[in-house]
Amino acid sequence: MRDNNKQAERRKQLLQQIERLSRVAVFGTLSETYRACGSPGCRCHGPGPKHGPYLNISYRGDAGKTTGYTVPRGAETAIREGVEAWRSLQLCLREVAGMNKERALDSAREGKEKTG
């Protein structure tokens, strides 16, 4: 009985965390790039450093093709936090899915014991 209470409390915590994370989660993978500009005399066209870093996010779209966009400077922090929230959200969902699986298996075992 005590394990059921602990599991119910953990499930409640996870569902609250899922709700909170879902408000900020952003799907995608982050990368940073450096680029050369369009000014021929700029240092970035020689051995000097390129411009950047520019934050990019990529993801697999509905048609299965990888797509993405450059994140505006003003949104970098929010997007970084959103991608981290997405990772955490997935971990929470995996844990809830594991609990669901165990509950279904336990229920099937109990039914089998009653009928068998």
Which stretches are poorly predicted, pLDDT < 50 over at least 5 residues? Answer: none
Mean pLDDT value: 92
* Strand adjacency order, main sheet: 1-2-3
Shape: elongated
Q: Structural class of the helix and strand makeup?
A: alpha+beta
The percentage of residues in β strands lies in 15-25%
- Sketch the topology as an H/E string, one letter per element: HEEEH
Report Rg: 23 Å
Domain module tally: 1
| Helical proportion, percent range | 40-55%
**Distance separating the two termini:** 24 Å
Number of helices: 2
The total count of strands amounts to 3
Largest sheet: 3 strands, antiparallel
Descriptive labels:
116 residues, alpha+beta, 3-stranded antiparallel β-sheet, 19% strand
